């Protein structure tokens, strides 16, 4: 797919949880071509002295409205400023969006059982994959972890999706650091149990996809390696160009330093040197 | 109408004054959806060494007010890969090619140029100014005697246009420029990045793994303009000017200060069409000012 750089109108930009915001952008050409796991590189208007773009995963697309949803967490000046943008403020109601960038999630052919693991905002870049798997009638289980119940902002959408699917799991399994919802602690223990239970039942997963903080991804990658399950991770790095030229965002891998932007962001877990 | 955009950079004929700053454009292919590389005055490729270099650890960049720091460390797959993969592609596109040559030693620079003599490229830019490698790079470019010696050696190895890229991290840029001229360079390019540093106070840690890095973007433009202007007065070689050029007007400023050609760097990260936009912006300026030949702008600053 060719890369597209398009002006996107902000349709919505709302706080949905602690330091968590949902931005809906009308980006027709990217909305129709983006694949699960790919990202967009966004130039935020109104920050003249902050010149770089920011990469954001795409949470969902809506073909009818030609929009993409971005779930973002405020982590610094750029994302703080982003929260002030609104749908109706002239030049500040449009952002420049470059995409779709990167390697998408690639479940092995003939995958019958998949487990998706999202930590924090990492739940978002897995949602389109979940849609795709459910649509192709793959048994799909989802584990979500967050600091608090309020931060489990993707849970509702996953519940709707899973309950309409063919899987016996009708809601994502959840963990919270403070125990306010689901299992108290990290998502890793839920993943370990799920892999073990599936293995014991003779119905091991064919594929695990994980996105979240690196310690979570690494722990899940290790569990999958032990269980002999194919696993993919979504790597995040500081980026400049976002299209493979500048070599800012490299990830240490068994094949040397690869670019998170175009060789990733999705990598086969066993390739990553943590 | 009838505007001549062509310039001659020390024997390198460019269809317009715009090339890319090494390291910001790879070898052009990544920008293929946005820019026709054959429409550029030249493509300057990412610095290449004899064998591949792995580069530095991450984080490799930091955003800074009106600019950025980088410490990539000249990660590259080596000259053979460039010759097997990138140069043929650029040749197929009809691009004019400047190869940025890097090395850890005099011998490595010479070995890279030796290899490239077999390839269809149009000029060399000798990188004696990278602030992000421990050996070679900037350590060579800050001593006039050293600069003259390395340029002289490479001069003996090639008849192709030889551009020497200077570091701004020196007391007197004109002393270095004169040394490059004395060594037999056909042109100089400047500025490479300014050595800088960024700190994350909350974590009490440096923002980048290598602690220091090279500053680029609009924040360096005043320094770059001053250095181009000083060199233009001090030597007779043509100058490839760069440092924070974001649009056509920025490019015209460099030409007025004495640059024959200009390079677009950090702007490529912000706007993937930046090179073509700069070409259009220069042409637009010329039309507005009744300039028939872009060469009229070179050094035309009214002081």
CATH superfamily descriptor of chain B: Aldolase class I
**Number of contiguous helices of chain B:** 9
CATH class of the largest domain in chain A: Alpha Beta
Q: What's the total count of β strands of chain A?
A: 16
How do the strands of the widest beta sheet of chain B line up side by side? 3-18-17-12-11-10-9-4
Biggest interface and residues each:
A-B, 31 and 33 residues
Class by alpha and beta content of chain B: alpha/beta
Computed over alpha carbons, the radius of gyration of chain B is 18 Å
Judged by helices, strands and strand pairing, the structural class of chain A is alpha/beta
Written as H for each helix and E for each strand, in order along the chain, the element string of chain B is: EEEEEEEEHEHEHHEHEEEEEHEHEHH
Helical fraction of chain B equals 25-40%
Low-pLDDT residue spans of chain A: none
Look at the structure and give the mean pLDDT of chain A: 95
The CATH topology of the largest domain in chain A is what? Rossmann fold
Report on this model:
The complex is a heterodimer of chains A (274) and B (303). Chain A has 274 residues and is α/β, with parallel strands linked by helices. Chain A has two domains: 4-101, Beta Barrel (Elongation Factor Tu (Ef-tu), domain 3), CATH 2.40.30; 113-234, Rossmann fold (3-Layer(aba) Sandwich). Chain A has helices at residues 28-33, 77-82, 127-135, 155-164, 187-200, 214-227; strands at 4-17, 20-26, 39-43, 54-57, 60-62, 67-73, 94-101, 113-119, 139-146, 173-176, 183-184, 207-211, 230-234, 250-253, 256-259, 266-268. In chain A, strand 5 (60-62) and strand 6 (67-73) form a beta hairpin. The radius of gyration of chain A is 18 Å and the shape is globular. Chain A starts with a strand and ends in a 6-residue tail after the last strand. Chain B is of the alpha/beta class and 303 residues long. Helices cover 32% and strands 21% of the residues of chain B. In chain B, the strands form five sheets. An eight-stranded parallel sheet of chain B has the order 3-18-17-12-11-10-9-4. In chain B, helix 4 packs parallel to helix 5. Chain B is globular, with a radius of gyration of 18 Å. The two termini of chain B are 29 Å apart. The A-B interface holds A 2-5, 43, 48-53, 78, 98, 237-251, 256-257, 262 and B 23-26, 30-31, 33-34, 46, 54-55, 58-63, 65-68, 70, 72, 75, 217-218, 266, 268-273.
